[in-house]
């Protein structure tokens, strides 16, 4: 049976587990805690065909019973659909998939033959039912591990799932929790972590992904898809930031923020509301921190090699040492900021605003307009403006040239969102002449 889920996910450090649990247990209207061990096997092909088509399939052991679930992985990671069925065994039952949207893909002989267990999730779940007055919310902690190909990845997360009531009941409770405990919002579900672990990609820097857009998609839905993709890409790079070889993760994290800011600028006529300026300014603050780290990474990479036993080389070594110290401080500033309440609240507020911001309840003719029409017009207008600003580029001061380059790169980000939408960004490849992001 299909049913939409509205939920928020948070990760937390092992040292903070007791504090987070105590916070939830002390919430007014919290019921008695229940405990379960959940062993879940996820199935896919070696090429991860199901996952690449937006589906996760699992069989979960709960006591002596087994539940098979097909989940459609929504781009929002906040709302999604799932289809559950009782099964008497831990193996995958393809017959139970017939009445789900996965049936067509799973019916292909090449897919059916290749399906196999891909990874396992083994957690202890502690659950509380919270009666807030405005809604009924299930809070559950999962602690354990994901295992794939002999590799293990720890799991420590809190999920808040709306059982009854409206979205604001869930969102307001989440904000209160983030303000009181070191909870990190995350759009990376266990299924995605497992698939990345199975493919050997977990914990490495990830390049930008393309939003799934269609020419007949409304502007409202396209904006959500684009922004949620950007925030997801940002979250995907966070685990790599504290690694020794983390230069690319900082770079990709910065790109994700810049793409998100570009999307907000592109859709400003539709989404400008009471929260817009604050979110834009907070993103700029975070972007500046990532930018400082990126600048130092680039500087270090471009320092000339040192010649041995030369006075100049000694001075170069001193310069290199000073640059490295400043680079590490810039990296640490980002890590500390992300651990702080300001950045954690920003990420939660962005996720909620995309899904349920006031802009959605404002009167706007743009929201239901086809994205093909809106994006084509907006990109064309920005392109003409950029060409006009760039007239006589060689005669402009360096500061003015730099600003034009920034605007050109912003336009490139905007155009790349619509690569797969016919007739919108057919000249996007030409924008690559403005250099790397």
Fold blueprint:
Layout: E1 2-11, H1 17-25, E2 34-44, H2 49-52, E3 55-62, E4 65-72, E5 79-87, H3 103-106, H4 109-114, E6 116-131, E7 135-148, E8 151-165, H5 167-180, E9 184-185, H6 190-198, H7 219-237, H8 247-266, H9 268-271, H10 276-302, H11 311-339, H12 341-356, H13 371-389, H14 398-417
Antiparallel strand pairs: 1-5, 1-8, 1-9, 2-3, 2-6, 3-4, 4-5, 6-7, 7-8
Helix pairs in contact: 5-12, 7-8, 7-12, 8-10, 8-14, 10-11, 10-12, 13-14
Structure, described:
The chain has helices at residues 17-25, 49-52, 103-106, 109-114, 167-180, 190-198, 219-237, 247-266, 268-271, 276-302, 311-339, 341-356, 371-389, 398-417, and strands spanning 2-11, 34-44, 55-62, 65-72, 79-87, 116-131, 135-148, 151-165, 184-185. The protein is of the alpha+beta class. It has two domains: 2-202, Hypothetical Protein Pfu-838710-001 (Beta Barrel); 261-434, no CATH class. The longest helix is centred in the C-terminal third of the chain and has 29 residues, at 311-339. The radius of gyration is 24 Å and the shape is globular. The two termini are 45 Å apart.
